[in-house]
Amino acid sequence: MNIHEYQAKELLSKYNVTVPKGTVINQLDEATSAAWSIETEIAVVKAQIHAGGRGKAGGVKLAKTIDEVNYYANEILGKTLVTHQTGPEGKKVRTLLIEEGCNISKEFYLAFTLDREASRITLVASEDGGTDIEEIADKSPDKIFKEVIDPLTGLTDFQARSICFNINIPDSLVIDTVALMKNLYKCYVENDCTLVEINPLVITEDQKVMALDAKLNFDANALYRNKDILQYRDLYEEDPKEVEASKHGLSYISLDGNIGCMVNGAGLAMATMDIIKLYGGEPANFLDVGGGASEEKVTNAFNIILSDNRVKGIFVNIFGGIMKCDIIAKGIVEAAKKVNLNVPLVVRFEGTNVDIGREILDNSNLNIVTAETMGEGAKRIVELIK
Hints:
Blueprint: H1 5-13, E1 22-25, H2 31-36, E2 43-47, E3 60-63, H3 66-76, E4 80-81, E5 91-92, E6 96-100, E7 104-115, E8 120-126, H4 133-139, E9 144-148, H5 157-166, H6 174-190, E10 193-204, E11 209-211, E12 215-218, H7 240-247, E13 251-254, E14 259-263, H8 266-278, E15 285-288, H9 295-306, E16 313-320, H10 325-338, E17 345-351, H11 354-362, E18 368-371, H12 374-385
Parallel strand pairs: 14-16, 16-17, 17-18
Antiparallel strand pairs: 1-6, 2-3, 2-6, 4-5, 7-8, 7-10, 8-9, 10-11, 10-12, 13-15
Helix pairs in contact: 5-6, 7-9, 9-10, 10-11
Cofactor: Mg(2+)
Enzyme class: ligase
Catalytic activity: GTP + succinate + CoA = succinyl-CoA + GDP + phosphate; succinate + ATP + CoA = succinyl-CoA + ADP + phosphate
């Protein structure tokens, strides 16, 4: 789960990480009062969307007067911002962060993320802050430094100091920077983050270490024990179909193709998408209905798939283990009737009572094609939509 910059800074403040003072607005008439709260000579007007590259897209502006704050707020709020991370459709700006500017002496990059190869949280840092870490890695990989963290000891002072020395933190600020790193690590662990990124981490002219920007991502599977983080969820920033799926306990991710997929099990779902592409098709989604695919769940899954107007056909690929194939078949038949299915549907079953399940589908008088193998099913749905 992603959150906005202003929410990330609110959370980091609880961990004694210094961030600029700011005010969040959702209406244009709030801009003036927000500007009056700024105690520095420059105010920064920032679009709040779940995407990077806002500055390059015109979503971050420096204002020297209250009139300029109002002008930029009017220019950005309510507009669709297109960045390299939003795609061509962009994202509508519904919230602005108006915060105090600062005199920057030096910018750095700092992040805690999960290194999946090492299966450890890793501290990543660079002296070149303010730019994309991918760009730094591509052009100057020698400027990126890492410390892999042992979960038993956590981030040690030695590791934090080593990073400080490698990225040339001034000696007088090493103690403060080490403390900041350890606070960031604590935030990461206690909130089940998958990413805590500060870009840039700045040293101000009055020698303070400050998180000028912040990006925090969270493990959605751990939100049950971090329910306070759920208050930061912005449904406007998520795909409506994915939001609807989460209400019914379905794992759904929207893709760009035209073949809807309904599968039980994440591994099988990935294999299903791969084999559709092998036969020249393009999956429209990842959808895992889970092990207990009830009639209600199957109906909801069909509704969500068909709400995507790009879907020209559906491939159901089910392994009947916990749930028997005949029970799933009955659910598919009833669901197809309820949603008034009007696109080709190919169903491949395997597992307990598979023959009974296929017989139920064949005798349903519905336009359902059955397949014995995953390859046969994928090939058939690709042919049907063509």
